[in-house]
Amino acid sequence: MPEQRHVYLDHSATTPVSARALAAMLPYFSEIYGNASGIYLQGRLAKQGLEEARRHVAAVLNARPSEVVFTSCGSESDNLVLRGAAWSARQAGRGNHLIVSAVEHKAVLDTARQIADLLGFELTVLRVDGQGRVDPDDLRRALQPETVLVSMMTANNEVGTLQPIAALAAVAAEHGVPFHTDAVQAPGHLPLDVQALGIDALSLSGHKFYGPKGVGVAWLRSGLSLIASQTGGSHEGKHRAGTENVAGVVGLATALVEAEEMRPQETARVLELRNRLLEGLPALVPDTRISGHPHERLPHHASFLIKGIEVQGVLMGLDMAGIAASSGSACTSAAQAPSHMLTAMGVSAADAVGHLRLTLGRSTTGEDIDYVLSVLPPLVARLRQ
Ligand code: PLP
To answer: For the whole prediction, is pTM greater than 0.85?
Structure first.
């Protein structure tokens, strides 16, 4: 019997650690193990690794190293910015209104809702169009003198749609309101120049771009007023207490630099393969349409609404054929309720159960795409019977 193919198409959920990132991390587990706060040689070496990593991340973001805060994940970075901005405003008596979009990851949406519930903030959740985009004019209308932060994701994890971040940030800037973007899905796929984008804060997560899990970045423009959620020691410019995960941070920084170096070629390569899915699947599987924006979307991201099936059956059938895929956000795929992102885009509950996400990466080949396109049509036909 021929060996079964293994095709991993869930790179928006997570990625493997690259060989270069792993090699950079290894010495920090067992050789350079000092606490970066120590004044002795071992501590100084760890501190050097930490600060070099900070410079590398800052260079990719076109920012200052002192503006880079290392956290434990993308969710923590989102929490730090939203909560920190709300607390800081409360402390200064500066206003009590937040604006987010309806398609934010729960790390932003639920945090904003909690701030509204517990601190009595007013929360505006901006609607999106059928392809998942926010209209900058809607943001303009929603801004108030009381607004203390706008948070809009760079790219959506479920449907891949890109937001017009520079345009949205410009609207917030006209009103002097800080603008945060959850850019967790962006590295390796989109430029991350925070000056060109005109933003004030940004969240990243190492495991989405071939770095390790358990480490993230909150980039905070200097002067942005935030109160730390995690208190204790004075690590990370007093923005985030806790002994630094030096190995993780070095792995994240190495992976980010590598992703940025590979971006032009890898984006072009993956885009061509992805487009074969976007064109091929609706042609081969009747009653199937693309979800999200047809071209203002992440280059490695394909997602579909397949009518008349429950996607769990498709995912199990794909798994039996050696193909790893997902539906909606990996964080909520076990939940039965339709995804809040699809609902916000006007997708009915009946259609949302047929949402399939295929996200490509460095390991994806043309043969993988041929294989998926050969497995899916008969699988869907069988399930529809
Ligand atoms: N924001 C977005 C857009 C995501 O896709 C994810 C993870 O899927 C997160 C935030 C959370 O990141 P982390 O898993 O590092 O907490």
So the answer is: yes
What's the rounded Cα separation, in Å, for the pair 369 and 282? 14
Name the residue of 70, 71, 75 to mutate for ligand 1: max ligand atoms within 8 A of Cβ.
Answer: 75
Query: Atom 4 of ligand 1 has which residue's CA nearest to it?
Result: 184
Handedness of CA 160, 166, 171, 173 (dihedral sign): positive
Number of H helices, E strands in the chain: 13, 12
Domains and CATH numbers, the chain: 7-15+263-384 (3.90.1150.10), 19-258 (3.40.640.10)
Confidence of residue 1 (pLDDT cuts 50, 70, 90): low
Active site residue 331: yes
Q: How far apart are CA 133 and CA 97, in angstroms?
A: 22
Query: Which stretches of 36-157 are assigned E, i.e. beta strand?
Result: 68-71, 97-101, 122-126, 147-151
Q: Which residues line ligand 1 (CB under 6 A)?
A: 73-75, 105, 107, 153, 157, 182, 184-185, 205, 216, 329-331
Provide φ and ψ at 49, rounded to 5°.
Answer: -60, -45
**CA–CA dist 352, 338 (Å, integer):** 6
Residues 6 or more apart whose CB falls under 8 angstroms from that of 118 comprise none
Q: Quick check: 212 and 74 in contact, CB under 8 A? A: no
**Could you report the per-residue pLDDT of 334-365, keeping only the tens digit for each?**
556 789 999 999 999 999 999 999 999 999 99
Q: Is 202 helix (H, G, I), strand (E, B) or coil?
A: strand
Token pair 């290392």 is found at 70
